[in-house]
Amino acid sequence: MKTPALIFAAAFAAALAAPASAECYADYKAKQDDPLRLHYGVAQVSDANCSPGAAQGELKPRLAQAGWTLLNVLATFGPEGLGERQASAGEFFLRY
Predict the structure, then answer these.
(1) So which residues are the signal peptide here (predicted)?
(2) CA-CA distance, 43 to 96, in Å (whole number)?
(3) What is the pTM of this model?
(4) What are the residues whose beta carbons fall under 8 Å from the beta carbon of 56, sequence distance 6 or more?
(5) Cα torsion 15, 21, 26, 30: sign
(6) Backbone angles phi, psi at 19, to 5 degrees
């Protein structure tokens, strides 16, 4: 009856080898009123919120604390998309 023990050990080893959490980022547009200011930014969101709709719920209060209104989340992506967005986001790259 070593088979169940071997299956359990293999499953346990596979679970340990998996990353603890995936990195997730969102790019978004936000605004401030009076005077009108717009910005494009990139923010890290929790991997549980790695969809545009869920990221919106996480980013909205973060931006509001700094006086910004979230207009929309454009996309969510992994770390492989950071490099191509960094220059466009400028000072708002991973700020919120």
Answers:
(1) 1-22
(2) 6
(3) 0.75
(4) 28, 70, 72, 73
(5) positive
(6) -65, 150
Domain chopping of the chain, boundaries: 21-92
Q: Is 76 exposed, middle or buried (0-12, 13-18, 19+ CB in 10 A)?
A: buried
Reported as a single tens digit per residue, the pLDDT across 77-94 is: 999 999 999 999 999 999
State both tokens at 85.
Answer: 């967005």
Question: What is the rounded distance in angstroms from the CA atom of residue 30 to the CA atom of residue 95?
Answer: 13
Q: Which among 26, 6, 4, 10 is positioned nearest to 82, based on CA atoms?
A: 26
Separation between Cα atoms, residue 7 and residue 15, nearest integer Å: 12
Residues in the chain: 96
> What is the rounded CA–CA span in Å between residue 32 and residue 5?
59
Q: Among 21, 18, 41, which residue's Cα sits nearest to residue 94?
A: 41
